[in-house]
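so ive been stuck on this for like two days lol. basically i have the seq below and the ligand is thiamine diphosphate, smiles is in there too. i just want the complex predicted, nothing fancy, no docking runs or whatever. if the output looks off dont worry ill sanity check it later, just need somthing to start from for the group meeting slides
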Amino acid sequence: MATMNMIQAINSALDLMLARDPDVCVFGEDTGYFGGVFRATEGLQQKHGRNRVFDTPLAEGGIVGIAVGMAVNGLRPVPEIQFADYIYPGFDQITNELAKFRYRSGGEWTAPVTLRTPCGGGIRGGLYHSQSPEAYFTHTPGLSVVVPSTPHDAKGLLISSIETDDPVLFFEPKRLYRGPFDGNPQHGQTWENKPGGDVPVGYYQTPLGKAVVLRSGDAATVVTWGTMVHVAREAIEQCGIDAELIDLRTLVPLDLETIRDSVNKTGRCVVVHEAPRTSGFGAEIIASIQEECFWKLEMPILRVTGWDTPFPHTQELQYMPNQQRIARALKKVTEI
Amino acid sequence: MTDKQRFRVENPGGGEARNAECSHGGQLRLHVPEAPHRPGDEPRFAKFSQQPGDLPCPRPLAAYQELHDHATGLVRVLDDEGTALGPWNPQLTADTVRQGLETMVRIRAYDTRMLSAQRQGRLSFCLESRGEEAVAVAAGMALLSDDLLFPSYRQQGLLLVRGLSPAEMACQCIGNSGDHCQGRQMPVHYSSKPANFVSISSPVGTQFPQAVGAAMAAAYRGERNIVASWLGEGTAAQGDFHYALNFASVYRPPVVLNVVNNQWAISTHCNMATGGKTFAARAEAYGVPGIRVDGNDFLAVHAVTSWAAERARQGGGPTLVELLTYRAGAHSSSDDPRRYRPNDEARLWPGGDPIERLIHHLTKIGEWSDQQQQDLVQRCEQEMLAAYKEAESHGTLADGSQAPPETIFDDVYHQLPPHLEQQRQELCEESLAEEGKSSWPQ
Ligand SMILES: Cc1ncc(C[n+]2csc(CCOP(=O)(O)OP(=O)(O)O)c2C)c(N)n1
């Protein structure tokens, strides 16, 4: 075991997979010599060679397109999109090609690509360095969508993603790269002595499609993922409501069983996500809960989400869901 | 060391010479280009082989094939001794050239001021145009004020040419109450309708097809103004570059499309953006004239932009211009170029520094003196200091005097729809407004 931040954990997963599987290759904008603008691929080119870890031209549509082609021809590419906000030039290749190769060829052709990309706010990145676009991709059958919230899960989930035979969109909440984030930027934190900051140095898998209950409680269920896991955890501690906290980790395939068991127990639920509310993945979760748990529900399910606006720069802290909003929602669902 | 071993900026991708390398004992091998110089290497650049006067200046409505040599060569006006020569010499008055010099010195002083504010924690981010001031300033001066500009984030010089005050620009960077965009965008993402300067977004290259569309609109409405756009050579890899060129070649709207080849896209060298010879040469395949110009030669940039603008105004359609320059500063305040390129590359760049070169020229023709230069630099530094102070009087990052949080909901649509009205009320009622305010570490 070693203390790792999320970048080091991701780097470690890539390093291991490059060593284990000669078909794994890593590429993207600035990912080669430089090691990536967030340093996730630092040292990998020197260690594994320029043919396996390299830079690409600045064109996300091209990056995804060649990744699909490489995968169709037997490789296991792990491309990086520098920011999730810049994934859209690759949208056609992801949604029409990557996601549909297996289906349209009756399983004859597959494209096991793991597309890594930093997402989410909290770094004063404004409109275009803050987005959480996961819902666009959960809406596309054929793709798995993963969002880790700790270094431990990031490494284990990335290894599982690379090994699975399906394409995976792997969203890395960049605000968590260097430490957890409780919603207050004054609280500079590192992963040292934090849950999930201890990471096995060697190979391990964290299963896809499995949520984790981070805190058990009887009063209500909080379902969330990514950066909001940490904000919600702190909100629960601060407001004194004995809520159960579920970190989904994988949005597709969704671990509905864990959610169902919890909501059947508590009868109350708040879903928290950073992305805008309308057509956010929270809506999907809530629809599923009411299908599965309707007779056990005591109160309407609430959502705490980013507002339905672009992500603003100076007002990012008023934009992102914070502890107070989550606590208020918890109070509301436990009122009567 | 012979000239052959020096890196020839004329041929970044290596062209045909590299092809043999791909085959290795009968087996194929993936070719992954490496930058010519990395930290620890001693940068060696070959001098520009082209001289002013090498290339003719065709008439504005010349067939695109007549510019074949311009697309692969290099249009220059200032020679290595600072003399203006050849058919591309725009014959500007000394006053105009001095104005160009002054604007370049002002934008450099502005960038320097903003960078130091960022280092002091007074800005969240900053990005300078050092070393490539001529690209924006000379082009801006060669265009008319009604011409619509679709720049990238590195042409802030255009704003000074268009008369924006540095204080107003600094307000955008701080995101305070003096920022008419309400602090929504990151620093340096300027927008100015009065200056015909279209709002900048971070996703690179999107402005290129937009510029073509705007030029189509100008032609559609029978106007006289034209459109110009800029992107970096790294960005010339995006599909948007090619969409723009192709649509421009089909509809022939009045647009000047500029590729600013400053050698580096963050850590990747321009040989990662193309395996071909030059960026301007791509134009030919689209049936559009392409011109490669020394981007650190103020007079040459002015001349080439004027030529392309005149062609567009006369109905001759688009031109692709490649401006050969060097990004002397870091990519942005988040970047440390010492990690991926030798420190002294900028100093050894064969195109030199655009400001130094224009000073050299003006001094040589007896229109400028050391004293005048000293005074100018001092004046500009004072101007930017005062401008920054004035900007901070509209609020600093620390005092949180930003736009009221409920303005988050403005301008998403032309009118607030019901669901946003509801969300705005939620934000206000719960007085979440105060909570996040100024809680950023300074
Ligand atoms: C679509 C998109 N992908 C990635 C980025 C991140 N990024 C910002 S600037 C940049 C490099 C741009 O290089 P270049 O086009 O050469 O322009 P320069 O910065 O050198 O002026 C990158 C990769 C982005 N802003 N937009």
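Chain A has two domains: 2-199, 212-333. The mean pLDDT of chain A is 98.
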